[in-house]
Each structure stands twice: as C-alpha cells, then as structure tokens.
Amino acid sequence: MSRDYMNIRSVRNIESASGWAGYSTNLTSTKRVALNRLRLGAVVWAHIPFAERAGEKIRPAVVLSASTHQVSVLPMTTSMRRFRLPELYVEVKDLGAAGLTRSTGIGSYPVVVDRIEVVDLVGTLAAPDLERMLAASTAVAA
Fold it and tell me: Quick one: 55 and 17 in the same domain?
C-alpha cells in the first residue's frame, strides 16, 4: 500500500475471516492537514528524511512556509546529542503550547517535504520560542 493512503492516527486491526484470526494488519487512511493551518510556527508531525543516509523518520517539525504541494519545516529532536552543538538547536520552552510532552530542540536547517508527508498538526510555538527560532535560523543562514 502506498504511503499516500496511510496515516498513523487511524490504525485499525482487522481479523481475517479466512482462518487468520488474530493476524492484524495496519489499514489506514489519508487525512491531509489543511493548507491554511500550516502557518509559520505551527508544530506538526511529518516524515522527515535523514540527512546522512537513505530513509526517513516521523518526527515533530516547525512549519516555516507551505505551498499547495510542499512544506518547508525545521525538524525537531528530543535526542540529548543536541546539547553538544547548542548553536544548531533552539530549545522549546513552552512545550504545552507546542503540543509536545518531552524536552525538544528545533534544528537550524530547513527541510522541504511534500505536503502529504505532514501527518498531524499538534500545536503552535509560543511567541518567545518563535522569536528565538527565527533569530537562530537567520544567524545560521548568515
């Protein structure tokens, strides 16, 4: 099944009537996040490709901009390795507003993903977090 028809939020277990009782398959449906909700500072879960190797991971990200087919985001991480390079990450102070539960850092390098790769909208960065993120990404770009 193509990932175009998959969405993590709506997983169902199906029992097969042909003797496969107990065998479960993840069947899901697509539900795009509305384009008008993908504004600067929106926190989303999205399929983010790895920078150094093939593959991807579903992780939180902050929306920078969005068009009909593509979304520019800054990937977020909960990994403690972010503290080794603090100049590359901005810590989210207001986790509740962002819809997050764990200490999280916002990366400084944007990634462009297809809009279908955005799985869910979970929150919005608080104004102080957004200001610090924009200042840090401007400093990295310079």
Answer: no
